Every structure is written in structure tokens, then in C-alpha cells.
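Encode chain A's predicted structure.
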Amino acid sequence: MSKRKIVILDGHTLNPGDLSWDALGELGDLTVHARTPPAEIINRAAAAEIVFTNKTPITAETLAALPALRYIGVLATGYNVVDTAAARTREIPVTNTPNYGTAAVAQMTLALLLELASQPALHSASVAEGDWTACPDFCYWKKPLVELNGLTMGLVGFGAIAQAVAKRAQAFGMKVMIHTRTPREADGIEFVDRATLFREADVVSLHCPLTNENEGFVNAELLATMKPTAFFINTARGPLVNETALAAALNNEQIAGAATDVLSAEPPRTDNPLFGAKNLIITPHIGWATHAPRESD
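Encoded structure for chain A:
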């Protein structure tokens, strides 16, 4: 009996060489591609019964050209890279890995917040440039430093990652405010509508999936309602945010700062409007990438 054919379309980001695919290879005839350009998807997945993808898109047109396909596994939390409606029509199950990076992404969210609030990288670079040795005083700071204790953390979404962020924020003495479609009982947490959250929170952090309905919902109008002292953080999905509007809000000092681990296109174009924006931290979608969650995936 021939083994089922298993294809991984873009294995490099999940496993750049520090993990093993052996366990998956025991289930069938496994082929791992580091990356797959769009023009090669159909050719590489041809005759495959099982396809795994991380960010390589599986469209309706692609599905139509893969008659042997029986299962799609998404090696990430979000599954917007797969046309799930087309897969459902073919009765092809699509699974994701919703809980593998919970602790890692929560950690990244707090790391970005602490960088915005306490500016350690800025001041470390300043010391390295000689500013402290030239200082007439025993200390100095180049930007206002913000104490988190007593401030309000506003989370959009309340899945596993947001719940983990909420616990960590509470450990810093922060109040927690949530906007979600499914409010539930949670100690010390206030559930509010989206407008209230953006208007009243000192930090707004996105932890919701990307859908057709919420794409670009963080727009100029919503950002204009935030406090001028507020921070904005996105470790969810880049297209949730109108990047031109966020850049304008930062450059016009409508908000105090922002940090994002995700962009609307990844890798980004050189003309992304966020590049060069004031008081902005951008990291290359690494919130999930510690060794522990990749190994458990």
C-alpha cells in the first residue's frame, strides 16, 4: 500500500532548522518546502492528500486544481490564508493551531508595552553613545517614562491570548477593559463596547481574528477618540489597522505611541506608511516564535 502524500508548503519560518519533522514524516511520504511562491503551489501540492501551510494561501482556484486533497493544516493561529468556504464545499477539513503561542504572544505584547512605557532600548543606546558619561547629573531620561500601575489596559478580543495578556496586565497593577462579541464572567474585568474601550483605555491592544467584517476597523475616526497619552499595540493581524491612519495619528501626536508585530503585507513594501512614523515600534511578526511553542506545534 502506498503512503499518503504529505506536503508542507512553507516550513522555514516554523522550523528554520532547530526542530524535527520526523514525527510527521512517520505518517506518510513527507515533502517539506522551505518556501513556496504562488506560481508553484499547485505543482508542489499535486497528488497530496494532506497539505500544511503557514502563510502560503490556499485559494478556491488552488483547491479546484488539487483533486486528491483531503486535509489542510494551518501551522498558525489564524486561518485566513485558506478559502474555508471552498474547502467546506469539497468537505475538506481545515484545522489551525489556536493555542500554541498563547504565552509567547502575551509575553511579546507586554514586552512592547514595557518598551513604550519605560524606553529601555532608547536609553541603552543613549548610554552607548556616551550621553551618560557626559551628563552633569546622576541620571537623565530622553522621553517621558510611564508607570503602568493604575492605568487601564483595553483588549479587543478575549480569546486565550487576550486572557493571558489580561492576567499579566493585572500583575502590573493595571485595570482591564475588554471588548468582545462574547462577554463572560471574569474577575476584575470590565466588558464594554468598542467605542468606550478606545475612548477610555490608556493602552489598546488587539487580540481578535481577522475577518471580512473587521478589516481596517482601526481607522482615523476610531484613533481620534483615543487619549493623547494612550498607547496602541497590535500583535494580532496587520490588516485590522488602517496603516495610513495610524501613521497620521502618531505623526500628529494624537496618541503617545504604538507598537506592532504585524503589518498589512508581510514582508512589507518599502513604502509602507508606518515606516518612519513617530513613536512607533515595529517587530517582524515574531511574537509566536520562541522555541517552546514552535516545538509544541
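The longest strand covers residues 152-156.
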